[in-house]
């Protein structure tokens, strides 16, 4: 359970902290300091340069250090890329993080608890998980966009925005449901699909 809370909360708190940074051009890099240090930590422990059982337990599924270099490393890289590339000027990064942390994170928790009924083309994923992914990806994205629009960084254009976010959430959910997890980590496929869909639909 704590591994999933890390998955959900570390990214969402990072995203929610963006408004506290200044308007200077260096702010996005300064904000990326924390995930960058985490990135370094994952690489060091992933290569077993320094042992850290607590870290390994808190983010990996099977408990071997090399796992840190896959899902968890991609996760922090996505945090850094979203901050540096999109920052507060575009809804793309906000939505991508909401889908990866909120959507995928909650889908994992709910899927494990209520996911007896699997989806037809992937025995690893369940209806409960996919429906939660869609719902929470959508709700967390909408909340984040609303939050950033309240600070005046982006514009929340009512139904226009809601419809687009619903479509992006559907794309992210479909990609997450595909039986490709062995080849592409969900921590890459979900944010990447969300970024592309958001770029096509929002255009900035
Ligand atoms: C994604 O990253 C989180 C946070 O580091 C980690 O707990 C999770 O296992 C990763 N997911 C996958 C599918 O590797």
UniProtKB/TrEMBL annotation:
Q: Name one GO molecular function term.
A: phytol kinase activity
In its UniProt record, which GO terms are filed under biological process?
vitamin E biosynthetic process
The annotated topology with respect to the bilayer is: Multi-pass membrane protein
Q: What does the UniProt keyword field contain? A: Chloroplast, Kinase, Membrane, Plastid, Signal, Transferase, Transit peptide, Transmembrane, Transmembrane helix
User: Which EC number(s) does UniProt give?
Assistant: 2.7.1.182
Kindly tell me the pathway this chain contributes to: Cofactor biosynthesis; tocopherol biosynthesis
Q: What is the protein's given name? A: phytol kinase
Task: Name the residues that span the membrane.
Answer: 68-86, 131-154
> Where does the record locate the signal sequence feature?
1-27
Q: Which InterPro entries is this protein grouped with?
A: Phytol/farnesol_kinase (IPR039606)
Cell compartments where the protein resides: Plastid, Chloroplast membrane
Asked whether the keyword Transmembrane is assigned, the reply is yes
What this protein catalyses is: phytol + CTP = phytyl phosphate + CDP + H(+)
* Top EC category: transferase
**Family per record:** Belongs to the polyprenol kinase family.
Q: Does the keyword Transmembrane helix apply?
A: yes
Q: What is its main location?
A: plastid
Taxonomy, superkingdom? Eukaryota
């Amino acid at each position: 359970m704590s591994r999933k809370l890390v998955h959900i909360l570390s990214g969402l708190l990072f995203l929610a902290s963006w408004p506290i940074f200044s308007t200077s051009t260096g702010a996005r890099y300064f904000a990326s300091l924390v995930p960058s240090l985490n990135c370094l930590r994952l690489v060091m422990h992933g290569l077993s340069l320094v042992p850290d059982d607590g870290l390994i337990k808190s983010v990996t599924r099977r408990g071997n250090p090399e796992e840190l270099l896959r899902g968890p490393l991609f996760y922090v890289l996505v945090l850094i890329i979203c901050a540096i590339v999109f920052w507060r000027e575009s809804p793309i990064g906000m939505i991508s993080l909401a889908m990866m942390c909120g959507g995928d994170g909650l889908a994992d928790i709910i899927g494990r608890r209520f996911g007896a009924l699997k989806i037809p083309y992937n025995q690893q994923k369940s209806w409960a998980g996919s429906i939660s992914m869609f719902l929470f990806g959508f709700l967390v994205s909408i909340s984040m966009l609303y939050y950033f629009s309240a600070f005046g960084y982006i514009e929340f254009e009512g139904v226009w925005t809601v419809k687009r976010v619903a479509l992006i959430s559907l794309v992210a959910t479909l990609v997450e449901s595909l039986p490709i997890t062995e080849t592409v980590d969900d921590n890459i496929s979900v944010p990447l699909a969300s970024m592309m869909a958001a770029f096509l639909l929002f255009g900035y």
